[in-house]
């Protein structure tokens, strides 16, 4: 990693406690521009907490979160999102009663002034419409554009959530178990989408339990256990790390 | 049109505005049981502006809407901390606070009420009602409305795609308060006499009922609800003293059979297939 250029995302000694419980202890991690980085660890290791701290859902007890060198630790969620960090959820959170198409429009809140955004969509937001079409095509969701997103099969819902997250052209995409519950072919589709997104310069930080998936995809891995970073490195290094085998891979196998 | 019919029609127009004031706030997932308070503010302020300050009615209504909207925003901020029934209780408290304020505010007649306003026509009331209804229906096709729906549905997820829930919820409160004030101003100039009791809790409940009966997910639902709420009791007159009981039974029946109210998006799409609502 180039140490002179600011990392796209940097967590600097982040600690998060709930009452007396340490959910995260002194966690530091980095994602470089265009990198795909994985966070792995057993259940309760603090992976989702990490995402919640990065996106402003939780405020770090101490330490800081930097996006392109700017401190976003204390910013509210919507500001962090607008600054360029978008996420998906482990348990999919799509808006009920909204079509796929509407999900892609609503995810572009900064397209146009307030007054213009009060006009019917087709007059107010030509650029947003263009962008939504583009994303629809990228994710091959054209056939289901007018379907209610929540009525779609599980795999497609995951895709819609990912599409919603990238519509506003974020700098960093956080994916919380993007292929959980998917079959091999569906997971492959997601993997190739992620690789194509990276080609466009997007950085991706993902949580995933599917080891084969993570090992094949990530440039760098961080391993958490009980809120503490126990290892980091390239996938092939992690595979052989005894602490990791003990804490996670050993138990899982 | 008989005077009686005109009276009913005016009542419908005013109730429609009141219902829309609740509808806008409800669209962001907040239930206000205090909109009669904003209506009262609008009624008293408009009346003072026309009777004492000598402003034309339209100007007075606009001023009252702006003032009430600002109060709505001020009430909306503390309301952000409250959800569900707690918010409903707080708005109820606000409504009662406004009513008792005018009860004791002797400069505007206190419990004696206030009069001297010029009567406005049914047509004038309906011009306002129609403008507000059409405006809201247009906004329902806009990106802002998508944001409102997103915030109502999942505030956290909405925040994480870059929407500002605070802005949207407080803004909706302000707009609802402004519309309620217009309803109040028109009410005052329709009845040419107001007293604090006009803006009690029951009035707030009427607004909410109109929205729930007519359809709480589409703006025309407020229209359907206002018509039902004004006209149905007239048709149930043959039941004499039992008509309110019958009305209550109808309400319960409606909620059991059709929780979203009479009109919803699916029904509107069925009625006007060409408009892709």
Please compute the radius of gyration of chain B using only Cα atoms: 18 Å
**Largest sheet of chain B, order of strands side by side?**
1-2
Strand element count of chain B: 2
Q: Give the CA-based shape of chain B.
A: globular
| Multimer state | heterodimer
Q: How many helices of chain B does DSSP assign? A: 12
Helix content, binned percent of chain B: over 70%
Q: What is the count of β-strands of chain A?
A: 10
Sheet with the most strands, sense and barrel status of chain B: 2 strands, antiparallel
Strand numbers in spatial order across the main sheet of chain A: 6-7-8-3-9-10
Tally of distinct domains of chain B:
1
Please write the CATH class name of the largest domain in chain A.
Answer: Alpha Beta
Percent strand of chain B: under 5%
CA distance, first residue to last residue of chain A: 31 Å
How would you characterize the overall build of this protein?
The complex is a heterodimer of chains A (253) and B (277). Chain A folds into 2 domains: 168 residues, P-loop containing nucleotide triphosphate hydrolases (Rossmann fold, 3-Layer(aba) Sandwich), CATH 3.40.50; 77 residues, no CATH class. Chain A is 38% helix and 23% strand. Chain A is built from 11 helices and 10 strands. In chain A, the strands form 2 sheets. In chain A, strands 6-7-8-3-9-10 form a 6-stranded mixed β-sheet, with helices on both faces. Chain A has a 4-stranded antiparallel β-sheet with strand order 2-1-4-5, with helices on one face. Chain B has a two-stranded antiparallel ribbon with strand order 1-2. Chain B starts with a helix and ends in a 6-residue tail after the last helix. Classes of the chains: A alpha/beta (253), B mainly alpha (277). Chains A and B meet through helix 2 and helix 3 of A and helix 6 and helix 7 of B.
